[in-house]
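Minutes, project check-in
Item: structure for the 123-residue chain
Input as provided by the requester:
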Amino acid sequence: MSNAPQLYTLYQQLLDQSQMMLRLARQGLWDELIACETDYVNAVHSLAQLTEEIQPSSQVQEQLSPTLRVILDNESQVKTLLQNRMDELAKLVGQNSMQKSVLSTYSNQGGHVLVPQSNLDLN
């Protein structure tokens, strides 16, 4: 008895999940993406276990190869979008730190604004 149909089903489920994750990343729905990640990781784990158990024939592997390529491409795109988001957040954190530093420096001046005087005032 072959488990190939079960393998095809798991690959299709993984493809569906990877497409959903890519869609969420493109839409900037980061919380929803993170929530889907656990299901995706579990699906990959299940697929790895089944593949190890049944050791699919080279014909089955050939048939699944295009699906696997799409899954890997989706994963790569999601990683790129996540990296872009992390870079964006790092920039915002840096700006926030700079603002806090400026505010801290200003508050240490006792609320006094120091304005340079012109040379005319010295005479």
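Outcome recorded: The mean pLDDT is 86.
No further action items on this chain.
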